[in-house]
Structure formats: C-alpha cells, structure tokens
Amino acid sequence: FDPSTSPLVGTVVLWLSPGMISLGISYIAARAFYARQNTVTPVVCGVISIFACLGLGYWATQTTGVVGLAMATSATAVLNAALLIVLLKREVGQLDGGRIARSLLRILPGAVVLGVICWAGSAWLTGRLGTESELAKLLTGMAPVTAGTVVYVVSGALLHAEELKSAWRIIARKRPETVAKIDAEEALDDQ
Fold first, then answer.
1. For residues 13 and 161, what is the distance between their CA atoms, to the nearest angstrom?
2. What would the pLDDT profile of 28-60 be if each residue is shown by its tens digit?
3. How far apart are CA 53 and CA 68, in angstroms?
4. Cα gap 189→183, rounded to integer Å
C-alpha cells in the first residue's frame, strides 16, 4: 500500500462496516442456537451465505472491483444475520426487541460522539503533529480513541446503559463489595 491507495482502502472499509455489525449479530445468534443444542441451523445459514457471497462477489467484482467484493461480503453478512434472527425467533419466540431497541438508543449517542471525536481528533492532530514521527502517529491514533472512549463510557453511565453495568460487573467480580454497590444502585434505578 502507498498513499495513493488510501481512498480505495477507505471505500472498502466503509462498505465492510455494515457487515461487521451483522457479523456480531451472527455470532450472538449462532451461539444462541448452540446453547439450544442446535448446531445444524447456523451451519446451514453459513453455507447459504457462502454461496450467496460467491455469486454476488463474482458479479460485483466484475462491475466495481475490490469495492464490489466488500459490498458482497457485507450484503451476505447481513443475509446470514437476518436468516439466523428469523429462524431463532421462530424457534424461541420473541427476542425482546423493545429492550434491545431501548438499549440501542442508550448506547447510540455515545457511539456517534465517539466516532466523531475519533475522526475529528485524528484529523486535527494530524494537521498539528503531522505523521513523520512515531510519537506523532501514536498520539494521532491513541489520543482521540482514549477521549472518545471516555465520552462513550460517561454517556452510557448517564443514560443508564445496561451493557455498561454488565461490563462493570464483570470487571468488579473480584471485589464483592463493588458488585453489591452496583446491585444497590440498580435497585434504586428501578424504583
């Protein structure tokens, strides 16, 4: 790679992004099937997705090159996630979509701000520090991510995101008094 290929790499990563979200959903849904002793459904969905990716990828690469391959990969990741979710709903019933939507609404603002801080902070620091030294590269990458993560955690705490409480509980497991404090705070939040 050289600087002239950066826009192409950026476009490919942009098209791969929806697939990354779908891949996360697929991992969770597949594990739900495995927990129910059903290994066949995720494998069948995976095989269907592979063949769809091969066909769509071949066609898309003919028209748009490597960007088409990224589009096909994302599209089939979405297909795999959708198949798994539809079949999981059929097998277990409702998946508590309202709770998932509320959770998403609680973490989305922090995630958007995190992304903006990372993008804008990196651009700003690159303009100030350049990219010549290793220290400048390190600061340009790490400072915005650190600042964005802090904002994400704070916004999640302010919006009472369940995922943040779960993560904190996992971190605090070795300290029972911390877990008891978290449980007490959750009880107050529920009132």
1. 28
2. 999 999 999 999 999 999 999 999 999 999 999
3. 11
4. 10
